[in-house]
Specification:
GO terms for molecular function: protein-macromolecule adaptor activity. The protein is an all-beta fold. It has 2 domains: 214 residues, Methylamine Dehydrogenase, Chain H; 65 residues. 0% of the residues lie in helices and 49% in strands. It has no helices and 26 strands. The strands form 7 sheets. A 4-stranded antiparallel sheet has the order 4-5-6-7, with no helix packed on it. A 4-stranded antiparallel sheet has the order 8-9-10-11, with no helix packed on it. The chain is globular. The two termini are 21 Å apart.
């Protein structure tokens, strides 16, 4: 999958024809929509893809092998009637899922919004406690949510709380938070900001960070592996993989504008705007 302004392209690698599917937001006169988040394979709709846009809207597609994508639904995932117009939004929407049926959204709002996907209805809001926009959002799949803010901090929430579910605030980055990962041990968190700094945090105390380090440049693309202790950075002339402790694992000798890891395996996907190509790397460089 490759994000390109107002649409994404999708290809089924099992289809030998190489057919490309284009999933677009409907055109609205005077508006410029941009894809700001993707959430594939949510449990309630396993063969699916959720696409979030900068106006706070969400479109749910069913993507089955060897068939054309089908639009299942579309709704306003974050903003209420009377909020600022979509053109005034800057950060768009971030998404994560909890359990089999719950979707959490955040963005240019003072709250995180919970959605029950089975009932197709809101399930309440969680106050963020600040005017800062949510720029990254992740869950542990059960009840904890980590929200990265454009002010550089990461806030931890418990969705079981009836009111303000904030548990703690992590150490501050110097730039907006770009990526977050709640580690599988449920004891640590890794966050990366848009300036390339990395924080490894112990969830039992949050501050100070257990480890801080920075990439040597401002990254165009960042990814954290959800199970393996790996972080990838892509730039105009570089594509590198590091351990979460800051030890470089490999230099793939290739520029990349966007990167992402396979959910389980040690496989890295890297896309480039130079040639609109996506390359897959396994066993680091092979």
């Amino acid at each position: 999958m490759n994000c390109v302004t107002d649409h994404i392209t999708w290809q089924d690698h099992a289809d030998e024809s190489g057919k490309t599917h284009v999933l677009k937001h409907p055109v609205v006169t005077g508006s410029q929509f941009k894809v700001t988040s993707l959430l594939p394979g949510i449990p309630h709709h396993s063969s699916s893809l959720l696409i979030g846009y900068n106006d706070g809207s969400i479109r749910l597609w069913r993507i089955a092998t060897q068939s054309d994508p089908e639009l299942i639904g579309a709704w306003q995932g974050l903003h209420d009637y009377g909020d600022a117009t979509p053109s005034a939004k800057t950060h768009g929407i971030a998404m994560t899922s909890i359990g089999n049926q719950q979707l959490i959204t955040g963005g240019d709002a003072k709250y995180l919004r919970k959605w029950n996907l089975a009932m197709e209805a809101t399930a309440g809001d969680i106050s963020i406690g600040t005017d800062q926009a949510v720029t990254a959002l992740v869950s542990n799949g059960v009840y904890n949510i980590a929200a990265g803010l454009d002010g550089g901090t990461v806030r931890l929430f418990d969705t079981r709380a009836e009111a303000d579910g904030k548990i703690a605030v992590g150490p501050k980055h110097s730039h907006p938070v770009r990526e977050i990962s709640l580690r599988a041990d449920d004891l640590s968190l890794v966050s990366v900001c848009s300036g390339g700094s990395v924080h490894l945090v112990d969830l039992r105390k949050m501050i100070p960070a257990v480890k801080k380090w920075s990439w040597h440049a401002v990254p165009m693309g960042v990814a954290i592996h959800q199970r393996l202790d790996l972080v990838a950075f892509g730039g105009t002339e570089s594509l590198e993989v590091y351990s979460i402790d800051g030890e470089r694992q490999c230099d793939l000798q290739k520029g990349a504008s966007c990167v992402d890891f396979h959910r389980v395996d040690a496989v890295l996907g890297a896309g480039s705007t130079r040639d609109n190509a996506v390359l897959l790397y396994g066993e680091w460089g092979q």
